[in-house]
């Protein structure tokens, strides 16, 4: 099983003709993703060949969905055009939009997030500023390398792209049902809690790894949710134990003020909810391996 993305997903790429869109479309195709077309209003009607596959470029998401049956879109659109691209996907009521773009203004993210809510949440948003989602052996929507792990019984939800890759590699002997990189911006679509519940509901996910980072209170809220709703074992890691107070670190959402949002406070909240928290990514992987192997 998998969450949000599986072997039946039909994927389009908004921004398929740009350098990043073309490069990662090739990688997604190479990892078995069923990409059925792309979107670029200025190149509508053209055909592009990527990895030996002829892909039609449509003028709109709505048109692409009608012609191909697409239910997932991956957005590789520059920051200043990304808001309109995501709103277009939401208005077309595509089931999942994965927003890879980094550097989208926060008020733009707030706008399309609010628009999704106001129109009934028919479109799940993953991101922005994220690596996407992979269900190994089934489909890959985004920029996560497909060759670092295989299918298995661990679910992974992470704010950090690079730590997603490291955790997948360290636990490659066990494998993953799905790995979701939710992004580290202050406003994102899918949250830790959304992914935790989806993994809880997935019969073939046996245990969950949750990776957080300093700043905000998402991890504390996830800890409360785990305590009340999640029965499967969860291990965690929080990036940023050595971050100086009051300084923005890495992702736009990672800022610490006083004791609020610190790695230590997040670790404490997670452990109080019964989550085993590693001091390093490797120690976290070791904790998960011990759980899975009984």
TrEMBL record:
SUPFAM superfamilies: NAD(P)-binding Rossmann-fold domains, Succinyl-CoA synthetase domains. This is Succinate--CoA ligase [ADP-forming] subunit alpha. It comes from Saccharopolyspora spinosa. Residues 4-104 form the CoA-binding domain. It comes from the Bacteria. Succinyl-CoA synthetase functions in the citric acid cycle (TCA), coupling the hydrolysis of succinyl-CoA to the synthesis of either ATP or GTP and thus represents the only step of substrate-level phosphorylation in the TCA. The alpha subunit of the enzyme binds the substrates coenzyme A and phosphate, while succinate binding and nucleotide specificity is provided by the beta subunit. Keywords: Ligase, Nucleotide-binding, Tricarboxylic acid cycle. Heterotetramer of two alpha and two beta subunits. Pathway: Carbohydrate metabolism; tricarboxylic acid cycle; succinate from succinyl-CoA (ligase route): step 1/1. Its EC number is 6.2.1.5. It catalyses: succinate + ATP + CoA = succinyl-CoA + ADP + phosphate; GTP + succinate + CoA = succinyl-CoA + GDP + phosphate. GO terms for molecular function: nucleotide binding; succinate-CoA ligase (ADP-forming) activity; succinate-CoA ligase (GDP-forming) activity. One of its GO terms (cellular component) is cytosol. The active site is at 251 (tele-phosphohistidine intermediate). CoA binds at residues 17-20, 43, 100-102. It is an enzyme of class 6 (ligase). Substrate binds at residue 165. GO terms for biological process: tricarboxylic acid cycle. NCBIfam families: PRK05678.1 (NF004230), sucCoAalpha (TIGR01019). InterPro entries: Cit_synth/succinyl-CoA_lig_AS (IPR017440), Citrt_syn/SCS-alpha_CS (IPR033847), CoA-bd (IPR003781), CoA_lig_alpha (IPR005810), NAD(P)-bd_dom_sf (IPR036291), SUCC_ACL_C (IPR005811), Succinyl-CoA_synth-like (IPR016102). Belongs to the succinate/malate CoA ligase alpha subunit family.
């Amino acid at each position: 099983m998998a969450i949000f993305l599986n072997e039946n997903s039909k994927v389009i790429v908004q921004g398929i003709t740009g350098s990043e869109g073309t490069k990662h479309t090739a990688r997604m195709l190479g990892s078995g993703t069923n990409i059925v077309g792309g979107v670029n209003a200025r190149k509508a009607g053209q055909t592009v060949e990527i990895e030996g596959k002829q892909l039609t470029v449509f003028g709109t998401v709505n048109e692409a969905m009608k012609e191909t049956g697409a239910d997932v879109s991956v957005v590789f659109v520059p920051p200043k055009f990304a808001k309109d691209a995501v709103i277009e996907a939401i208005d077309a009521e595509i089931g999942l939009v994965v927003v890879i773009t980094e550097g989208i203004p926060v008020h733009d993210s707030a706008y399309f997030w609010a628009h999704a809510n106001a129109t009934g949440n028919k479109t799940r948003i993953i991101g922005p500023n994220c690596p996407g989602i992979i269900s190994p052996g089934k489909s890959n929507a985004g920029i996560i390398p497909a060759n670092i792990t295989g299918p298995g019984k661990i679910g992974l939800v992470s704010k950090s792209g690079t730590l997603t890759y490291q955790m997948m590699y360290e636990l490659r002997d066990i494998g993953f049902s799905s790995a979701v990189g939710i992004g580290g911006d202050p406003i994102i679509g899918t949250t830790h809690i959304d992914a935790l519940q989806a993994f809880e509901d997935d019969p073939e996910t046996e245990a969950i790894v949750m990776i957080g980072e300093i700043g905000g209170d998402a991890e504390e809220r996830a800890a409360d949710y785990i305590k009340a709703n999640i029965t499967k074992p969860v291990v965690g890691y929080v990036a940023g134990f050595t971050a100086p107070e009051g300084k923005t670190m890495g992702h736009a959402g990672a800022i610490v003020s006083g004791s609020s949002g610190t790695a230590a406070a997040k670790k404490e909240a997670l452990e109080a909810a019964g989550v085993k928290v590693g001091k390093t990514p490797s120690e976290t992987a070791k904790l998960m391996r011990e759980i899975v192997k009984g």
